[in-house]
Design goal:
Layout (H helix, E strand, L loop, with lengths): L8 H8 L7 H19 L9 H20 L24 H22 L11 E4 L2 E4 L2
Antiparallel strand pairs: 1-2
Helix pairs in contact: 1-3, 2-3, 3-4
């Protein structure tokens, strides 16, 4: 049985350039949500052979899309301290439109990755074809 792909809170932080002050428990809960959502969306419980990177990215973007609204509120312990961290890096809270745009982008990437990770049904002869937002693409 292949090893399950694991995504950690540190992976999420690195992908989105989040400060260390973002609570690990918050990110862990959203990683759990992402695992459930990815399994439901693809119909498989683990990465298909050779697609570990795509599976990990799908988990990451799904977890971020789920957590993004929470990350942008003052509900976080110590959120008032997040303004300026090591070096000259400045972190700021996004406005509502920026949050919505980020979430939409993350969800679009998740949908794209689900399309790559979802196995074709048995007997499906669509080799070289993919469906994207209701349009068929084929390779020649």
């Amino acid at each position: 049985m292949p090893e399950a792909v694991e995504v950690t809170p540190n992976d999420i932080r690195a992908y989105a350039n989040l400060p260390n002050e973002v609570p690990e428990t918050l990110l862990s809960k959203h990683i759990g949500i992402a695992k459930r959502d990815l399994t439901r969306a693809t119909g498989v419980a683990s990465a298909p052979d050779g697609q570990d990177e795509e599976w990990a990215e799908a988990l990451t973007v799904c977890a971020l899309a789920s957590a993004f609204t929470w990350l942008n509120t003052f509900a976080l312990d110590g959120a008032s301290k997040v303004g300026a961290l090591e070096g000259s890096v400045e972190y700021r809270f996004l406005d509502v439109d920026e949050v919505g745009c980020k979430i939409k982008h993350l969800e679009a990437r998740f949908t794209e990755l689900v399309g790559v990770l979802t196995p074709a049904p048995e007997g499906d002869n669509t080799d070289g074809q993919a469906i994207l937002e209701g349009s068929w693409l084929t390779a020649i």
